[in-house]
Amino acid sequence: MVASAAVAGVSLTAHQRNILAGVNAGASSLSFVGSGFIVLCYLLFKELRKFSFKLVFYLALSDMLCSFFSIVGDPSKGFFCSAQGYSTHFFCVASFLWTTTIAFTLHRTVVKHKTDVEEFEAMFHLYVWGTSLAMTAIHLLTFYMPLWGAILYNGFTYFQVIRMLNNATRMAVGMSGQPYASDARDNMRALNRWGYYPLILIGSWAFGTINRIHDFFEPNHKIFWLSFLDVGMASLMGLFNSIAYGLNSSVRRAICERVDKYWPEGLKRWLPINFKYKALTQESELVLLSTDGQR
């Protein structure tokens, strides 16, 4: 529904609206494929069905359904306009709320040293789906405020997690000596990756926020390039999430193990070797945290 508002600007020409509709459909298709791939991996590979990746699965499922409703049907008039718009809004809200549950899980596991995160699953579902339903019912003023609240919460949470683990890594290197320096650098790179997670929401919705503020002050004057960036970046959120949260080393390793087992030797030589062996030697930081928390 948010992207539809940008497409349906009254001051845009028919040609510009067609361009925005095409951008929305194309970007949403990429997000649908990316998030659908993560959903498929979760369903096919039993080793990925740990609690932390289950949260990624719910995130990808929300992104996939949000993208699906952005693509299908003709939202220009009648019942399908409302049905498509509200469905898209519901799953879009659910998507960024699931990112807060992932941030909460990391914070509780790493900073609070708690191992009870799986007990929160029912509460997570109530929080995400219940809040999404309430926000969809009164969507006009309840999208961007919770969105930026989620961005601030994720940013603060990941900052605390990264800072604590950075300090722990430096302390371990100081006590263990030089032989562990390379491992520490690898860990630091993995930790720094977490810092990019909040940027996904910022990058996806910054232009949309600016566009809504502009519409508030000048409702009869649409800026085409701003609407273009609004529609394009918001529709790509599912693709960004699937790459950052879902396409981790555990997923790549699971895929490579199936390739080694089932693919003919003649086809294996076309695979990138560095991708294959990197996947086989690294663990997903989210899955590692979940596993360590259960030991």
UniProtKB/TrEMBL annotation:
GO terms for molecular function: G protein-coupled receptor activity. One of its GO terms (cellular component) is plasma membrane. InterPro entries: GCR1-cAMP_receptor, GPCR_2-like_7TM, GPCR_GCR1_put. It is a multi-pass membrane protein. SUPFAM superfamilies: Family A G protein-coupled receptor-like. It holds the Pfam family Dicty_CAR. GO terms for biological process: adenylate cyclase-activating G protein-coupled receptor signaling pathway; cell surface receptor signaling pathway. The chain crosses the membrane at residues 26-45, 55-73, 85-106, 126-145, 151-173, 194-211, 223-245. Keywords: G-protein coupled receptor, Membrane, Receptor, Transducer, Transmembrane, Transmembrane helix. It is found in: Membrane. Coiled coil: none annotated. Residues 20-141 form the G-protein coupled receptors family 2 profile domain. Its main location: membrane. PANTHER family: G PROTEIN-COUPLED RECEPTOR 157-RELATED, TRANSMEMBRANE PROTEIN 116. This is G-protein coupled receptors family 2 profile 2 domain-containing protein. It comes from Arachis hypogaea.
